[in-house]
């Protein structure tokens, strides 16, 4: 395998200053196969933003596998005060598939996320539409803590360390930052202060590549991993069906939501649609192609990215196999 085209893609964008820095890497079920940095060291620590969602999702799935939760567990089991004025029931699978209908605050809200969760209104009845929600993951965090007596971040870092993803952190001290965060409408310091279970983790490309290796190994029937093959299959099962997709992920984007995984099963820009993973606010990308047997990571830090299409990078990675 040679990933020259993929690395050339990142090099072009950094040289043209469309991206300030980039780290790109690939992994198979056997481990990391390639990793290069452009304007940054390969072990640089980046804000992962919404890639955090799948990490928290794995922690919740592990609780499901232990019989401590089910996808159908109501949020009120953990937070009885939630939804007092709602006539529907928000369940774990709604929170994990962006179908809870909880009104979304700004990413850099100055209020505690638990307060936002308990006081936010309803956009639609649970399960009747899909609108992207980071606040919903505060509900997942509450269910994890209620069921396991462990915080979402401690639970996540526990399994991450077992697979060598030892760089995941909520500590921003070593972060490369996001130079144009304000131009993208985000107060970065205030955002990090929320410690959001749907967006708050930082890490290295190596950490996510270790996860990619683990997920590919599990997909191939590997046992004694962070999830069982059945648990991973559960996370990859589409949950959004034919319900309306509301902004910012309308139907024409060609994706479904699994249990926190973005399933790009109908994405018009991809040559291989057998793919699951997630992207993040400042251009971070983590995707696993089980049929092709490859996972890839892009860590970068640009809130505003005109002319940057990560589908090009995905296609270059898959086509190199």
Verbal overview:
The chain has 321 residues and is of the alpha+beta class. The chain has a domain at 4-54 and 151-319: Beta-lactamase (3-Layer(aba) Sandwich), CATH 3.40.710.10. 31% of the residues lie in helices and 12% in strands. The chain contains ten helices and nine strands. It has helices at 4-15, 52-65, 92-96, 113-119, 136-148, 152-162, 188-193, 205-219, 229-236, 310-319, and strands spanning 22-28, 31-38, 46-47, 202-203, 256-257, 262-263, 276-279, 285-289, 294-300. The strands form two sheets. The chain has a seven-stranded antiparallel β-sheet, with helices on both faces. The protein has a two-stranded antiparallel sheet with strand order 3-4. Helix 2 (52-65) runs parallel beside helix 5 (136-148), helix 2 (52-65) packs across helix 6 (152-162) and helix 2 (52-65) packs across helix 9. The protein is globular, with a radius of gyration of 18 Å. The termini are close together. The relative contact order is 0.20. The model has no long low-confidence stretch (mean pLDDT 97).
